[in-house]
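Rotation project, supervised by the postdoc (A.L.). Task for the rotation student: set up a whole-complex structure prediction and record inputs and outputs verbatim in this book. Inputs entered:
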Amino acid sequence: MRIERLISLLVAGALLPLPASAGVGHDQPSIFHYSRLETDIGSARGDTVSRWDLDAWYGGDADKVWVKSEGELLRGTAERAQVWGLYSRNIADFWDVQAGVREDVEPGGTTYLALGFEGLAPYYFETEAHVFVSQRGDLSARFEERNDLLITQRLIAQPYLEARFYTQDDPREEVGRGVAGEVGLQTRYEFTRQFAPYVDLRYEASLGGAGRAAERAGEYRSSFVASVGLRLMY
Amino acid sequence: MQKGIAAFCFGILLASSAMADTYYLDIARRPVNVTGSPVEAITINETTPGPTLHLREGEDVTIQVTNHLDKPTSIHWHGMLVPPAMDGVPGLNGFPGIAPGETFTYRFRTRQTGTYWYHAHSSSQEQAGNFGSIVITPKGGERVRSDRDYVVVLSDFTKEDPDAILSHLKMDDEFYNFHRLTVGDFFRKAREKGLAGAWNDSKMWNQMRMTPTDLSDVSGYTFLVNGRSPDQNWTGIFKPGERVRLRFINASAMTFFDVRIPGLKMTVVAADGQDVEPVTVDEFRFGNAETYDVIVQPEEDRAFTLVAEPIDRTGFALGTLATREGMKGDVPPHRPRALLTMADMGNMPGMDMDMGSMMAEMPDMDMSSGWAKAGTPEGDKALSYADLRYLGTQKDTRKPDQEVAVTLGGNMQRYIWTINGRKHEDAVPIRLAYGERVRLKFTNETMMAHPMHLHGMFVQLENGQPAAKMPNKHTVIVPPGQSVSVLLTADEAGQWAFHCHLMYHMLAGMMTSIEVAKPGEAVPPVASPSSTTPAGEHYHAH
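Outputs recorded:
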């Protein structure tokens, strides 16, 4: 279990002595923060699956420290757990470039360099794209899209897509050369902007070597997952 | 308890000494109750709004402001011609702000008459209640005769911590927008215009990542008249046939109002404290920080409702003009909430389609401003800036020596607001020679209206009237997608704050200053308006 290491990393990140800042002359705040945490529990082929997804930043309009963490527990055991620490720089109206480190605490305990961008594409597509080089020199990439569709002012359907590309087999991380990813629909009800329970339906699949690696790790090549969860923003 | 009595007596003393030469303002945090449960607010002499300062023309005024907060504060005299060090903006003219526990003594001689107001110029304290009104009486008494004279301060009250509001807007620019277009709205439009028509209508918005429902950035407000909620019903008493002067002050942090008193014509006699030729209207659009003095003459023995409806139609500020206490008039239904149109995008640099090709693609598109749609009934007269004529003759009717571009920009999605491409912390002051006559040309590249306020000097609004008749303004609304120009005689040396009076726009960067040199002092040329920040950042309008 390296989950303790993940938790200590997150705690360390939260306690980083970040400077509070005030603007010139007018003492208006110029440092802000954002955290979105989604946790859910669901079922896939009779197994209980739960996951978390944290997206958080701290900083000003131009420069931010960005922390991401996500992970999955299968039958109560951490299958995957990762935490990212990025420096994020605003380079265009809707876009930030990001560089930093990603640590996969589970399963393999691998460190990656991460480089990518994040922002809002036309038609309100929230977009993330990153490439990674592992400590063993393996190259991989990840691409994410999500978009809010308002059924009502508070009932919001969010279709999403995540694709991961691996150029090498990496048995320690239980991945293989190929593509893995998921498409899903999260439907949340915003009691407030900051408190929104959701139901989530998604299809996960691993293709090529990625699929074989998943099978070797005792996972399915593809599965449907239905979950209920909670989204918090603070 | 004793302390309470002492404070009460002090309050009485203050009220009775309001025509004296020294005034005391005590700024403190106290619970106030306007929504049924007490909320901590910033009060001045235990109330919000603070007391009305009744001053006389030519009076040597001393105002002692004591800070009982745990953070610095300040008071700015909005619209008042005062020495620069008395203007009350921390960081300008050597004014450090008022530290906790300290008293700052403001001293100035009044050089004007009319309706003005005061408010904190420190962080978001204005939203928390740190404001009040000023009435300056002319030496020879009021020029416009009235039997009754009421100050009507409009404000937007929130239970939230104002700093948290800004933080929320930085997290999500639509945090407070609960009027966004839904999937259902799209299909309703598709039934009306066909799928292609509905898609075309939404295409530009979606490409620009903007929404036509963005009328106000913040919601959840209770709108107040003189600190009273609609239920608490502020009432002004009149006898039928009396002339009643209402001194409207829009002291809200973020709210434009449409103001009317159904059943009564309003004769506007002053704008931003400065006398104008009387113009009779049914309603007026009221920008933050503006003031209007109107005369009404109710003839009937009944209650008239004073209706100030925010432009996002999320409530009403309501009061009553009545012949006795306890009366209440009818409250009209809400007017429709406007949607912004392509016309409100007029000046946007990112717009790569010209209007011609847009018209070809969207022949049924509405080319009039959505923002300007007040829902004024057919036949009713809404005040227009063009109606305002200075009473008398302006002293300085020179043509401007130079034109200074003031481009209002921003990035709604990141909640960044700029003047000439720069946020306040990177701002380059506009430097003017003493006595110089300049034109400030505002170009609004954003989709929101910005009430632009200049400290220390009045500007003359180029509203189509001849130079001798252009009205004086301290705050000028620049509607979305439009350009507005004003003339300025730089006859007050000092550093004068120049900013959008939507408080969160100011806090998010929409502020700079105009520095007027001392007589005979040289000035460097005005910085290029399209300059970028030292870090190479340039924020475009979205």
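Student's summary: The helical segments of chain A are 3-15, 209-216.
Supervisor addendum: Chain A has one domain: 3-14+34-233.
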